[in-house]
Amino acid sequence: MKVKQINAGDTHEIRHKMLREGFPIEDCIFKGDDDDQTFHLGAFEDGKLVSVASFYFDKNDTFDEPNQYRLRGMATLPDHQHKGLSRELLKMAFPIIKQNFCSLLWCNARSEAVGFYQKVGFEKVGEEFDIPTVGPHFLMFKNVTT
Ligand SMILES: CC(C)(COP(=O)(O)OP(=O)(O)OC[C@H]1O[C@@H](n2cnc3c(N)ncnc32)[C@H](O)[C@@H]1OP(=O)(O)O)[C@@H](O)C(=O)NCCC(=O)NCCS
Questions:
Q1: Residues forming a β-bridge with 129
Q2: Which of 61, 64, 71, 77 shows a CA-CA span of 20 to 30 A to 139?
Q3: Which H or E element spans position 110?
């Protein structure tokens, strides 16, 4: 397994299959994908991209920290889940986030994925809420210390 930085366009196939199935591929282009401070990470098995995550310099006013990163588009292909790939992507992301003078990472977590986020150190904030066409979510955050 190899983890490296990828381009926004590289994420689209996995985003589409895992997060936006049945919707137009254009829905897999997220706001800020090509911003300077945005970065995208991918995990490769036998040269094939199988897990992706994207990180945006984006403040959520729920949190006081002036500089924050947002995690979006976290997904691993079904045959490669539960092998620690998403955890590895996050491990690579934390020092990059720190280098960018941010110590808080937040996300809108699908309710079915909350257990995963808790395992990798995120905490829930507030009540469950609905994102139209996507479903129930919780706001979650993690203090990035390393
Ligand atoms: C959620 C998802 C990204 C996790 O990816 P993954 O590569 O399988 O995650 P990892 O293997 O790194 O998991 C880390 C730990 O969380 C556990 N875990 C993974 N998914 C879980 C879930 N849905 N609920 C509870 N625990 C979960 C793993 O078993 C592992 O536990 P361990 O440390 O005890 O071994 C993946 O299941 C996925 O793509 N789901 C569909 C898309 C999705 O919902 N993405 C999140 C959008 S907010």
A1: 137
A2: 77
A3: strand 104-110
Q: Would you give the DSSP letter of residue 35? A: S
Q: What is the position in ligand 1's atom list of the atom closest to the CA of 53?
A: 3
1-37 confidence digits (pLDDT tens): 999 999 999 999 999 999 999 999 999 999 999 999 9
pLDDT of 86 over the 90 cut? yes
C-alpha closest to that of 73 among 49, 44, 48, 108: 108
**CB 52, CB 40: distance < 8 Å:** yes
Ligand 1 neighbourhood includes 86 CB (under 6 angstroms): yes
Which fold would CATH assign to domain 2-143? Answer: Aminopeptidase (3.40.630)
Determine the residue type at 47.
Answer: G
The answer to pTM > 0.85 is: yes
Q: Which two tokens stand for residue 23?
A: 């919707």
113 lines ligand 1 (CB under 6 A): yes
Looking at the predicted structure, is the pLDDT value of residue 146 above 90? no
